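hey so i finally got around to running the thing on that chain from the lab meeting. sorry it took forever, my laptop kept dying and i had to restart like 3 times. anyway pasting the input first so we r on the same page abt which one it is
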Amino acid sequence: MKLVIVTGMSGAGKSTALRMLEDVGYFCVDNLPVSLLSKFADLSEEDNIDVSKIALGIDIRSGAKISELEGELRKLTDRGIEYEILFLNASNRILIKRYKETRRNHPLARNGRIEDGILKEREAIDFLKKRANYVVDTSQLLTRELKMQLDDIFLKENPYKNFNVAVTSFGFKYGIPADVDLVFDVRFLPNPYYDLELRPLTGNDKPIQDFVLNCKEAYEFLDKLEDMLTFLIPNYIKEGKYNLVVGIGCTGGKHRSVTITNKLAERLDSLPYLVKVEHRDIMR
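ok and heres what got predicted. didnt touch it at all, straight out
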């Protein structure tokens, strides 16, 4: 029997993850009371129960009982029952945004501020994040990207990449993206905008790439940026960070920034991290 405990921050996508696991053959139970974990494990081991894969959703909705989960997990270990913990996480800013969009109440902020509830929840379930086999930060993930990541972990059993790097191009004339951690300005590179034949194209087109990369400074910049990120990311991971957004900006976000974003992502893809590319202003 394969047992997965799905937990994490409210609003980070636990219900969505459980539905995805159900789609790939897991028997799923959401909001299982902590006290029933051992009893459920007993039932699943009975010969007349034809279930080989189980996913249980346990989170802060259990209230004060969540603190008893560590003891219950220890009981499973003592009995030789193997399990894995999937922890869904997201930044405070994203969680607040999601709650405001759905107009739902946070379980720990019924009569107060959402942010206060999120902070209380982080403290209460921190022990689960520390014990988790997989921590998936959904701050920058689309639903289909979350499904791809869960398929890699639980269906294809590919090596788990527990750090997400989003490289996004943008135009300074439209403002710096609010969620970027690191911003780099590539307006020092040759600008194809002034070539009337190249102007309608984007950094996804080879003529633009050839134009932008036709100088040693472009490759020097990519080398230095790759080296810096190779150094930074392991240190971010040591400090408990699971998500990094790198912003590459030019004037309009259509030519130079798109080219460099694509080339940087290609280089980072060889590292053991989940890399995604976004072009915020390419269609403007």
